[in-house]
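ligand=zinc ion
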Amino acid sequence: MIILGIETSCDETAVAVTQDGRIILSDLLSSQIDLHRKYGGVVPELACRRHIEVIGFLIREAVEKSGRSYEQLDAIAVTMGPGLIGALLVGVSTAKSLAYALKLPLLGIHHLEGHISAAFIEHNDIIFPAIALVVSGGHTNLYYMPKRGKYRLLGKTIDDAAGEILDKGARMLGYSYPGGPVIDRLAQKGDPDRISFPRPYRSSLNSDFSFSGLKTSLMHTLSKMGKKPEDYVSSHPDIAAGYQAAIVDTLVEKTFSAVEQENIKSVLLVGGVAANSLLREQFILMGERLGVAVYIPSSRLCTDNGAMIAMAGLSHLEENYFASLDLNPSPHLELMS
Ligand code: KG4
Ligand code: ZN
């Protein structure tokens, strides 16, 4: 099955053509990072306009690079939510037009199902029941999956998402968006024990997360050090390492205590923050310790991409679960089985 996957939920226009989900024939991405950098975060109206400008070219190039023709496509998969409404609209309208013109099935994909599906691109041996932790710029959601395509939400963040807290932390240190990769890089040279940060919500019995207190703690730490980020630049690696360790510890502890409670066989770690080196390392270590298989997509498939949407589309296609041409994007869509 040849599927065209389109992702435009936030600040990346991503398009891929895949064969049977696992063979990525082409995978293109137009990042808007430079466009939003000076504002310190994503500006919805600008994001939407940039998607409009690039999506046509990107699709044409992705199909060309895939070595297949439009006639050889079997379906069009597109992110239908959650995300920025204007941005989603661009992807959904384009996908609908293509599906109509080419007389192809349309598949409406939940963005988080896309992230979870990224784990299936490189692994076809995932055993259930599984726990999936989706950590991105907008979400920190923990799901119980009795089988592929079935999701029960166990917990989520009650305030900021893990990616958001990394982005905001880096910004306080004077670095630009996105901050996750910056913190990751700085932390590798730092001592996580020199400056300690609270492990938020770690001891509570449910699986919800809360990260906003960590931001306040960072603010206090910095105000004790100096007025401007340049005043304590030599401490940036230690600050980043301590801050990152607090987030990683919390994510690891919450996820693996759910693993122990639910007799789980596999753990999936997905979403942009799953590209984080320490988080990947700690999940693998805990998996080995507890005897559960841990699956993490390679880094480039953790952040938003079109191949994960195409992969999720394949399972919809196999289940005959199609979207109709009156599909509308939903900015606050919940993931349900
Ligand atoms: O999944 P994603 O690409 O977009 C959303 O759906 O939000 O995730 C983006 C998030 C950003 O917050 C970014 O800082 C974070 O993923 N991120 C990382 C790393 N690479 C990207 N966080 C920590 N370490 C990284 N290496
Ligand atoms: Zn995402």
